[in-house]
Amino acid sequence: MKNYLKITAVAAMFWVIPMAFLGEVSVQPILHETIRNLYWHVTMWFAMFILLLAAVIHGILYLRNNNNLNDEKSFALTQVALLYGLVGIATGMIWARFTWDTFWTKDPQLNGAAITILAYLAYMVLRSSISDSRKRAEISAVYGIFAFVLMVVLIVILPRMQDVDSLHPGKGGNPGFGNYKDLKNDMRLVFYPAILAWTLIGFWLANLSFRIQHLTRISNGLH
Asked: Which of 56, 99, 117, 200 is spaced 20 to 30 Å from 48 by Cα?
């Protein structure tokens, strides 16, 4: 990962962290000050989607050229994305506790997120259970594509249907944050840099994981 991207990630996070806690926010009904979790929960899920999309692209590249580097990069990206997903679930549960008075509801997006996390945990188990490196890479690539499509359906498409009851903004007929006329533009100046910061940090972590995998494979005499 290029040094200027690392510097950008660190600089963006130095901006986001203090503003997330101390910056002025739009206090919305029910949400009140918990709207600050927008900078953590939502942005981390955005970053997770981007990382998983990159993992799918590397998986497809592996299926085309059988280059182990693509498989290793896809796996490293998925690892970090899964970590983001777990943190996203945790921050979402905390947010739900203070806004909906419960850690979990029957909200379709919550259940979709849980199924997605389970699907990617199954990906990790499946990958670790296959000893043959080529077969492991091929199955992982195909499974990764399937899991990504499943995630898009469960988290993006299904909750947005008008006849689906959802508590999330922008889902189930509810207005999204972009439709709140009094949502301060100052929040967007933190929200978008937060997405950038989490995404770049995710790629940074994935790159470190990839390098460890690659060095391990070389030290074991594999090519």
From this structure: 99
pLDDT (0 to 100) of residue 180: 47
Write down the pLDDT at residue 105.
Answer: 80
For the chain, the domain total comes to: 1
Q: Is residue 26 part of a domain?
A: no
Domain that holds residue 49: 35-169+184-219
Other beta carbons within 10 Å of 77? 28
Position 20 in a domain: no
* 213 has a pLDDT exceeding 90: no
147 assigned to some structural domain? yes
Instruction: For residue 122, tell me if it sits in a domain.
Output: yes
Q: Which of 76-90, 166-180, 200-214 is the least confident region? A: 166-180
